[in-house]
Amino acid sequence: MHEATSREIDELLHAVDRDGAILETRTLAEAPVSRARLLGLALAGTGTALLAHVGPANAAPPLAASDIAILNYALVLEYLQSSFYTEAERSGALTGKTAEAARVVGAVERAHVTAFLKLLGSNAVKRPLFDFQGTTEQQKPFLKTAVAFEDLAVAAYKGQAPKLKSKPVLAAAVGIHSVEARHAAWMRELFGITPAVNAFDQPASREKIERVVASTHFIVARPRTTRKRKPKYTG
Amino acid sequence: MDLADAAVKASESRGNASSSRRGALGIAALGGLVALPAVGRLFRLADALAAPSKSQDVRILQLVLQVEYTQVAFYEEALQNASLKGELRTFARTALAHERAHLAAVTSALGASAGARPRFDFGASVRSPQAFTRTAISLEDLAIAGYNGQATNLTPGTLATAATIVSVEARHAAWVRTIAGEDPAPEAVDQPITAAQAAAGLRKIGLRH
Lengths: 235, 209
Prior knowledge:
The structure holds two protein chains of two kinds. By secondary structure, chain A is an all-alpha fold. Chain A has helices at residues 6-14, 35-38, 40-43, 48-54, 65-91, 96-120, 139-160, 167-191, 206-216, and strands spanning 129-130, 219-221. Chain A is globular, with a radius of gyration of 18 Å. Chain B starts with a helix and ends with a strand. Residues 14-44 of chain B have low confidence and may be disordered. At the A-B interface, helix 4, helix 6 and helix 8 of A face helix 1, helix 5, helix 6 and helix 7 of B.
């Protein structure tokens, strides 16, 4: 496993405006998600108040196919983050405040994954296989990559939130969006760069985000839906 | 001028060249229908609002305006009177510049229906670094929760622009929390508050009319 070069990580940081191969993570599923699954967010301990806030639970309609697609896209980003922090924590390479931040943020990203898995049920894409190219094994590359991931996540959620049709899902997504922004600021502070650069954070399209993620080669195997398809012809 | 245009204009005037126009709203034409904002009115901004509409966006922007006015005034007064030094001063100066840009965007979007700057009494919170830090954390957390609480009430275009602001508030919150030695991100999902809770929180911090 080679250590990510500074240039590679710089590319990751700035690649939001670059062209590149598109990561194929689109696995749409049409099956509606039940209210029970929607309330999985609450069971995951992350959305109780959110769901209570946005309206009576019995008003929650099945998720639209477009919402499922967005949630799966978000799930892949959450898989990426949670695996990254978990691996960094296990590597034992991090020290001091950075080790503490990785532990706390990792737990939150894992909670996001759990919440999305419960929400999506059998429509959820599987966790891909990752190779973080050595960035989880040294403090400085770790922090630089963490900054890039968190800023990417902020831009990604911001790009998708206005497209969400389900109000409970939107309410949860904006609550996650601002947490990712807190993480971004935290990692930036630890890395020694300003936590808040501009007055307005810009969104990024799914295509841009996927190009950036693809450019890192962190995903080494593509996720598939966990849904078992019924055989078209039986008997 | 709509919020998206206003946000672009405000950021361009501060050299944020990466901004681009997104999600046109055209709410300026509706702005005149709305009375001048007052905290009392904000308290009556129902939490179970109607489906998103441009006129509702305007009412919500009145709340947002109060949040941004409060932040600008708070950082201005603290920079003058709270003896802020080092990173805390850098934070306050940076946050003030951002909040001024947000205020300019929201004011432009509201046009004639944007109310004048209210009066404030921040008391001791703008007179010492310690009190400033505590109140800055409360105010930034309140702004995040207030914006998040309105997300499902906004039209997608206004939501898109509001989202470019709320994550900056979240960065401020995390930043000042790290300076204070507090957990920058204490929740897995930031919890929203209602318009009434936001208005009450602003009053508690020092918004007067």
